[in-house]
Automatic annotation (TrEMBL):
Identification of the protein by name: Glycosyltransferase RgtA/B/C/D-like domain-containing protein
Keywords: Membrane, Transmembrane, Transmembrane helix
Spans traversing the lipid bilayer: 20-38, 86-107, 138-155, 167-194, 380-400, 412-430, 436-453
Length: 479
């Protein structure tokens, strides 16, 4: 967590930096430790319940999760049969990543910004709740943002340090492979490798290739599959949307999908179930639930190939209004946290349905669990303000705009990566889950430094821009 170039600082300054990082780490450890003690072993949710149940049955691939997350779960919960063994290392990683960024900001003498990010981002009840749960979204989102932060620092100095190499190696697998949309992080990693000199470039390549090969090999050996991906759920969910019965029964709306699409879909779900089981906010009713009535899991490769072809050649274009409305609805329902939520005390009842060595509240704390529930519920009632990802989204747009105006390639790559992530979430989400947008709640940790804390900058020459606009006074900083 500490800068790599501490030896080059004066003695008093070195002590100041050490104190800042230690204090930040201790505050975060205290906050996360108290929270986890009150929710031990952590909220399960439907995904956590499925993960534990399938690992217990030696069938983790049927969770539909990505191989990297399943490998981690097998190496922790699978070997110990304890949920806390899975959660605690992730909590420590989150504390370390947050202390790294917030401490860096404080060292640059922005105490108000650092304190605001500590209180309004790092230690908010919903972040603590997701961070201690069996969902990979919190650690994935934070790792994604923290890895972009490290890339930004390295690009500012055009060199790798021991600390930066360690951070890249630690954060990369979670940021890239814990969820399918993490693959986007390969773009800034590739850009970083190109911008660095030969030796450093090969270090980046080695980190990417070694982790990628290890996860691919582990997933193959453990027969973990490839998850359900993003395209299949989208096509099935939206095709069901397009096939909803229209009460007006207008002539113009009688052929909203191809005859072949109707034939394929009706092999696996009846029209009555298409009308009754479709939920505009969730695809769970078509996949995870009602498997006696919806047999999409049994769909043959040939049928899905034909369905995919019809979707992109006719069905999508015939239903642009319905598709756009569906995308906007799910995105806004997610951003406003109007979907399902897992409370802090979820494990109280969730553990009863699975076989595990973990127990709820093993410390027999009497008031802390109830207090945390009350804090969480109060925060939830103000979620439209306190949980809003729109601050991060606005900052992404501001940084992207400035990068275009100043033709600053480094910032353009960083902000474009987040915009691609946002576009992917908008286009491919099939459930109104707030956790999908957690990366943009974390985004101010990265974007406030980029937007407001000057870093060594080397903008591309722009003949149309005044020199004073594209050149800034550098501030000495260490990665």
């Amino acid at each position: 967590m500490m800068p790599s170039s501490l030896p080059r600082q004066g003695g008093a300054e070195r002590l100041r930096i050490i104190r800042i990082y230690l204090c930040t780490t201790l505050i975060l450890l205290l906050a996360y430790g108290i929270w986890y003690a009150g929710v031990w072993p952590g909220p399960l949710g439907q995904d956590g319940y499925s993960l534990i149940a399938n690992i217990n049955q030696s069938a983790p691939r049927y969770t539909g999760k990505d191989p990297a997350w399943l490998l981690y779960a097998l190496a922790t919960y699978g070997l110990s049969q304890r949920v806390e063994v899975l959660v605690l290392p992730l909590l420590l990683l989150q504390v370390a990543a947050l202390a790294r960024i917030i401490g860096w900001i404080y060292v640059r003498r922005y105490p108000i910004t650092a304190t605001a990010l500590l209180l309004l981002v790092a230690c908010t009840p919903h972040v603590l709740n997701y961070g201690s749960s069996l969902y990979p979204d919190a650690v994935f989102s934070l790792a994604f943002v923290a890895l972009l932060f490290e890339i930004w620092l390295i690009l500012g100095h055009r060199r790798l340090s021991t600390w930066s190499i360690a951070w890249l190696a630690i954060l990369f697998p979670a940021a890239c492979y814990f969820k399918a949309n993490g693959i986007i992080i390969l773009l800034p990693m590739l850009y970083l490798a190109i911008r660095l000199k030969t030796t450093s470039r090969w270090v980046i390549v080695a980190i990417v290739l070694s982790w990628s090969a290890a996860i691919q090999w582990g997933g193959t050996v453990a027969n973990l599959g490839h998850g359900h991906g993003a395209l299949r759920p989208l096509i099935l969910f939206e095709t069901t949307n397009f096939m909803q019965t229209r009460p007006m029964n207008l002539w113009e709306t009688r052929h909203m999908v191809t005859d072949r699409t109707k034939e394929i879909m009706h092999r696996y779900i009846s029209q009555e179930d298409i009308d009754s089981l479709y939920d505009r906010d969730y695809w769970d009713t078509l996949w995870h639930l009602n498997q006696d009535r919806v047999r999409f899991r049994e769909m043959s490769r040939i049928d899905f190939r034909h369905l995919r072809s019809d979707f992109f050649t006719y069905n999508l274009w015939r239903n642009i209004p319905a598709f756009t409305a569906s995308r906007i609805n799910i995105f806004l329902a997610s951003a406003l946290a109007q979907g399902g939520m897992v409370g802090p005390d979820n494990a109280r009842h969730g553990l009863a349905g699975v076989t595990t060595l973990s127990t709820y509240n093993p410390f027999n704390l009497s008031s802390l669990p109830n207090t945390l529930n009350e804090i969480y519920e109060t925060s939830y009632n103000w979620r439209f303000v306190l949980w809003s990802p729109f601050v991060g989204i606005i900052l992404v747009l501001l940084v992207f705009k400035r990068a275009l105006q100043e033709r600053h390639l480094d910032e353009l790559v960083i902000s474009s990566t987040l915009l691609l992530q946002l576009g992917g979430i908008f286009l491919f989400s099939i459930a109104a889950e707030y956790r999908y947008l957690l990366a943009f709640f974390y985004a101010p940790l990265l974007l406030f430094p980029i937007r407001f804390i000057q870093q060594n900058r080397d903008p591309l020459p722009c003949q149309k821009c005044p020199r004073s606009r594209s050149t800034r006074q550098p501030v000495t900083s260490t990665p």
